Recover the amino acids of this structure.
């Protein structure tokens, strides 16, 4: 059974940093492209970033470029999102998503709240 | 970026009646290599992650009731719930995966009339 479990969310002040993790199991992690998608409270879904299977290619939405870094550890089956210079507008539930061509499986999400 | 626009924003349907949600993309999401449309539909209930219902615009995921169906091609797509059940109350999203950034419709809230 495919499982994606996010962790690392919490309350952080504007300008602060947070590192999210996603523990993957039940599939060949190193073969899967992985994404982060976020959802602000009461709002819609917004794609944030993607990393390919071996970690050699990454891409970001413009609003997080230069502040967020996606990475993976295929030996540990984990996906990370390092978030720096956080802004109030980054407040959201962050989901990790596995894609196999299409976005096939989502984690339960972890809430990040940026507030003073 | 491909813009996805859903209509309506909300709809109220009587139990057992048909619900229809439309999704339009700003450019074609037809993937030439397999002649399939790179579009999915999700159902999201409060406090839960999106649940994948349909991939490649019309392929129902395993375990999804057959009252849910997807259709359309190119830039115009439809999600149909043939006979609305109480448990179908949710927000529904379309999403294209033809290109990054993935983009989503704004969501359609389905309620019981």
């Amino acid at each position: 059974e495919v499982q994606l479990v996010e962790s690392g969310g919490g309350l952080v002040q504007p300008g602060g940093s947070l590192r999210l993790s996603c523990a993957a199991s039940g599939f060949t992690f190193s073969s899967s492209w992985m994404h982060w998608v976020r959802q602000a409270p009461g709002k819609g879904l917004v794609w944030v970033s993607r990393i390919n299977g071996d970690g050699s290619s990454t891409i970001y939405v413009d609003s997080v470029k230069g502040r967020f870094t996606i990475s993976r550890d295929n030996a540990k089956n984990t996906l990370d999102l390092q978030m720096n210079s956080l802004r109030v507008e980054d407040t959201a539930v962050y989901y990790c998503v596995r894609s196999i061509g299409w976005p096939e499986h989502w984690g339960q999400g972890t809430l990040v709240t940026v507030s003073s | 970026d491909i813009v996805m626009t859903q209509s309506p924003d909300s709809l109220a349907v009587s139990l057992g009646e048909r619900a229809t949600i439309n999704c339009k993309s700003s450019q074609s999401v037809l993937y030439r290599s397999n002649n399939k449309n790179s579009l999915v539909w999700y159902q999201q209930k409060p406090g839960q992650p999106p649940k994948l219902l349909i991939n490649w615009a019309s392929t129902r995921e395993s375990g999804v009731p057959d009252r849910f169906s997807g259709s359309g091609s190119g830039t115009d797509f439809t999600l149909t719930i043939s006979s609305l059940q109480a448990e179908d109350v949710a927000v529904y999203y379309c999403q294209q995966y033809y290109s990054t950034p993935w983009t989503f419709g704004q969501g359609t809230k389905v309620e019981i009339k």
